[in-house]
Amino acid sequence: MAKKEYNPFETARAQFDNVAEILNLDNGTRELLRNPMREYHFNIPVHMDNGEVKVFRGFRVCHNDARGPGKGGIRFHPQETIDTVRALSMWMTWKCAVVDIPLGGSKGGVICDPHQLSAREQEQICRGWVRQLSKDIGPLRDVPAPDVMTNAQHMLWMLDEYETIHGGKYPGVITGKPVGLGGSLGRTEATGYGVIYTVREALKELNIRVEDTTASFQGFGNVSQYAIRLYQQMGGKVIAASYWDQKDQKSYTFKKDTGIDMDELSPILDKFGAIDKNEAEKMGYEILDGSAWIEQPVDILVPAALENQINAENVNKIADSVKIIAEGANGPTSIEADEEIKNRGIFLIPDFLANAGGVTCSYFEQVQSNTNYYWSKDEVLGKLDSIMTAAFIAVSELSRKKKIYMRDAAYMIAVDRVAQACKSRGWI
Predict the structure, then answer these.
(1) Which of 61, 147, 293, 389 reaches 20 to 30 Å from 359, CA-CA?
(2) Number of structural domains, the chain?
(3) Is 387 domain-assigned?
(4) What is the CATH classification number for the domain harbouring 65?
(5) Regarding beta strands 142-146 and 70-77, do their DSSP bridges make them parallel or antiparallel, or are they unpaired?
């Protein structure tokens, strides 16, 4: 029998169904929250640099907007699927709710590989995506942002297309913009910093000093790079990190027992976070298979890449020394692996809490753009720390009080807030 392909939307629904039982939600509420409120599927024709016309498939899904405008990134990825977008939009709903910001959950994507596209071709995809959705996104309706393989330049092209269509200036329609053109200071660091703020609080709860810990990261993009920097500033040591090498079409793990040095690696990184292997070896880094990140004898694991990276096949490779797993990525842990992590008593910081720093700072950017008044970096990061810490404490306290898994506690808080908003509006 062929192995069943992983479906992130099935995982997202299963996680919701579990908490719906705990909360004893009525059938109408369950049906509403199990499914997206709106979906858009469309084609984006692009005149390629070689003169051919290529058609790219695009998506936007709004899972729920009872608590405020939809919010969520846009992924450019060759393996993008509608079920991935559906799952991510649902997770965005819970993410906004668990940190208690007045936004709903959305997500978007385009099936494409930016590595294989020129800047002009990427710009045409961005503008085409907005043309298809110009009536269905907006500062008061649905606010996109960057995600995997999209960046501030992509957001600016999208903003420009939206403003051209609507004939005005609407900087709050999209976040993740360049600083100076409506972007927020601190946004680049926000997701990675947010992960480490929650790790710091977990270590406090476990009565462990940051200075006495080591960590291993999966992924070496924006989230990991800033998380590593802050964790090291606090005194921790990262001994391994993995990344996907587009050129070789495989992943590698870079290991250095004395600790990864971000200042040392930064000059040999490309724009996608890929490390020059030859230069890294000269610096004393051991180059291992990409799967080796999960096997390291560390205190903290941070999966910060894609979905389904800790699963039934590799969860037993997690070292006995691991005390904390902080999910920097969305949906990195399968249902089966989650059970094993729970049984082993590893302190798990669930994705939609751990990586909520990005959407929280996106909310800050949206507020600043809508009011045309911008804050200092210290003010942004101070507000971010305050919100992330408060959210962690609320989840942790419920987890201890009810003697339940951290993921279940986070879901209980988030789902209850969204369900109450739907009821208050008279939807259910």
Answers:
(1) 293
(2) 2
(3) no
(4) 3.40.50.10860
(5) parallel
Question: In whole angstroms, what is the distance from residue 176 CA to residue 361 CA?
Answer: 9
Give the domain CATH number at 258: 3.40.50.720
Q: Catalytic pick from 71, 107, 177, 256? A: 107
Residue 374 has pLDDT above 90, yes or no: yes
Average pLDDT over residues 150-162: 97
Q: In the structure encoding, which two tokens stand for residue 132, read together? A: 């298809």
Same domain flag for 349 and 214: yes
| The pair of three-digit structure tokens given for residue 419, joined into one six-digit string | 């369900």
Would you tell me how many other CB atoms lie within 10 Å of the CB of residue 184? 24
DSSP letters spanning 61-123: EEEE-TTSSEEEEEEEETT--HHHHHHHHHHHHHHHHHTT-S-EEEEEEEE--GGGS-HHHHH
pLDDT greater at residue 38 or residue 307: 38
pLDDT digits (tens, 9 = 90+) for 205-259: 999 999 999 999 999 888 999 999 999 999 999 999 998 777 777 888 999 999 9
Distance of CA 415 to the CA centre of its chain: 19
Query: Taking a C-beta distance cutoff of 8 angstroms, is the pair 137, 143 a contact?
Result: yes
Distance, CA of 62 to CA of 60 (rounded, Å): 7
In a domain, 231, yes or no: yes
Where in the sequence is the domain holding 270, given as residue range(s)? 188-354
Contact 41, 55 (CB under 8 A): no
- Give pTM, 2 decimals: 0.92
Predicted confidence (pLDDT) at residue 273 exceeds the cutoff of 70: no
Based on the residue annotation, tell me whether 107 is a catalytic residue of this protein. yes
**Diameter of the chain measured on Cα atoms:** 64
Q: Which of 326, 354, 382 is the last residue of a domain?
A: 354
